């Protein structure tokens, strides 16, 4: 008994997928890489596959003998890397049947994720409610509202587990309308 190694039961299982494994055996969802056509069907097609650019002067200036590349996430439709997670969360929820036409997306957020979710929700036709603290900029609020989402503002000083925090208020809204968020 002393030689056995104990593993916590609540830990995620170790991923066994490797590059040489057949994709059909993978526990992960895979999407084939694509090249972007010149005309896209919607602004959702801009999300992901953002280009890499080579930074030439920084390595020279800093005396680095390496190639430095920058990922242009600002070219996503909503201008942020958070557009990727918004699109992925919504499409995964649709694929698994958690999110269906007519459902409402509710998210407690402080900004860019809310913009991404509002954008994807608008294109796909979902109602979207973003719950955010008062301290978040009016500019983010205007963008989110401009994308058709509703905004609920909460007290900035509320801790996440307090009843009037943006997280708890989002939970109350979800219970009230009876939808999953």
From TrEMBL:
Q: Which GO terms describe its biological process?
A: cysteine metabolic process; serine family amino acid metabolic process; sulfur compound biosynthetic process
Which InterPro entries does this chain map to?
Cys_Synth/Cystath_Beta-Synth (IPR050214), TrpB-like_PALP (IPR001926), TrpB-like_PALP_sf (IPR036052)
Q: Which family does it belong to?
A: Belongs to the cysteine synthase/cystathionine beta-synthase family.
Q: Which cofactor does it need?
A: pyridoxal 5'-phosphate
Kindly state which keywords UniProt assigns to this record, in alphabetical order: Pyridoxal phosphate
Fetch the Pfam families from UniProt. PALP
- Name the species this protein comes from: Fasciola gigantica (Giant liver fluke)
User: Which domain of life does this protein belong to?
Assistant: Eukaryota
PANTHER family with a match to the protein in the record: CYSTATHIONINE BETA-SYNTHASE
Domain named Tryptophan synthase beta chain-like PALP is located at 45-173
Protein's name according to its UniProt entry: Cystathionine beta-synthase
């Amino acid at each position: 008994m002393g030689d056995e190694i104990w593993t916590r039961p609540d830990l995620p299982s170790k991923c066994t997928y490797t590059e040489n494994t057949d994709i059909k055996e993978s526990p992960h969802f895979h999407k084939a890489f694509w090249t972007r056509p010149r005309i896209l069907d919607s602004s959702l097609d801009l999300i992901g596959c953002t280009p890499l650019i080579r930074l030439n002067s920084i390595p020279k200036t800093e005396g680095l003998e390496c190639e430095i590349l920058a990922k242009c996430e600002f070219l996503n439709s909503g201008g942020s890397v958070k557009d990727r997670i918004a699109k992925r969360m919504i499409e995964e929820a649709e694929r698994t049947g958690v999110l269906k036409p007519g459902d409402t997306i509710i998210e407690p957020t402080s900004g860019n994720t809310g913009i991404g979710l509002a954008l994807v929700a608008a294109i796909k036709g979902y109602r979207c409610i973003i719950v955010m603290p008062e301290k978040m900029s009016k500019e983010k609020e205007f963008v989110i509202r401009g994308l058709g989402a509703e905004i609920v503002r909460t007290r900035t000083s509320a801790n996440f587990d307090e009843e009037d925090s943006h997280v708890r208020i989002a939970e109350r809204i979800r219970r009230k309308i009876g939808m999953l968020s």
